[in-house]
Amino acid sequence: EVSTDDPETAFCTLANREELNPEEDSIHHCLYQFTRNETLTETNKLLCDVCTQRHCGPKNNISEKKYVYTNAKKQMLISLAPPILTLHLKRFQQAGFNLQKVNRHIKFPEVIDLAPFCTAKCKNVAEGNTKVLYSLYGVVEHSGTMRSGHYTAYVKMRAMNNHLSDLVLRGQSQASEIEPVKGQWFHISDTHVQPVSVSKVLSSQAYLLFYERLL
Questions:
Q1: Which domains does the chain have, with CATH numbers?
Q2: Which residues of 16-35 are buried (b: 16+ CB within 10 A; e: fewer)?
Q3: Which of 37, 95, 161, 212 is positioned for an S-S bond with 100, CB 3.0–4.6 A?
Q4: Is the torsion defined by CA of 152, 158, 163, 167 positive or negative?
Q5: 3-class SS at 207?
Q6: 48-100: pLDDT as tens digits
Q7: In terms of C-beta distances under 8 Å and separation of at least 24 residues, what long-range contacts does 52-56 make, across chains too?
Q8: Contact between residue 47 and residue 71 where contact means Cβ atoms under 8 Å apart
């Protein structure tokens, strides 16, 4: 979405992201890097229609127009907090001419706050709120290599989340909890299902993470 907001507020977030100091190899660090402020210069300059019209005039023949490029800032932020947050980790990297799987553990929490990664004018967050909280309810894990492997899942069996239903059906939530939704975790591998502890879930090699909105 292209925005023409005031430059003073265009890059503002719901919560101060500079106080995060995210730990390396964590989902917070991944989100911080993905939403970082970038400067576009040299060959990455932005085509500016206003500068082009000011330089050439709006009535010039388009074939004679000399386009003007300018330095700019770019930042990707969340403008609409989803009821269900799905995070897909990039678990591969280029190794010469081949792709290599990334097997290191990425830390992720039971409850995550998206506010430092949301625009200050996030559309479905009540004015004055400085938290956008989500509770973990599902994890997909992949074992193996880039060529072959096996997918398993961790799923939390829990009571119906009425706050989430309100958010999905009416676009609003009155939730005030900041604790993870209570429930029992299960590990699912093909037809094998067994109960597991939350510590087992949080130590998994997450490939996909599923969160439901609390606040």
A1: 80-213 (3.90.70.10)
A2: ebeeeebeeeebbbbbbeeb
A3: 95
A4: positive
A5: strand
A6: 887 888 777 655 555 556 888 889 888 899 999 999 999 999 888 877 788 88
A7: none
A8: no
Other Cβ atoms within 10 Å of 61 Cβ, number: 7
Q: Indicate whether 163 pLDDT > 80.
A: no
- Determine the residue type at 122: C
Token output for 201: 């879930």
Q: Is residue 84 within 8 Å of residue 213, measured between CB atoms?
A: yes
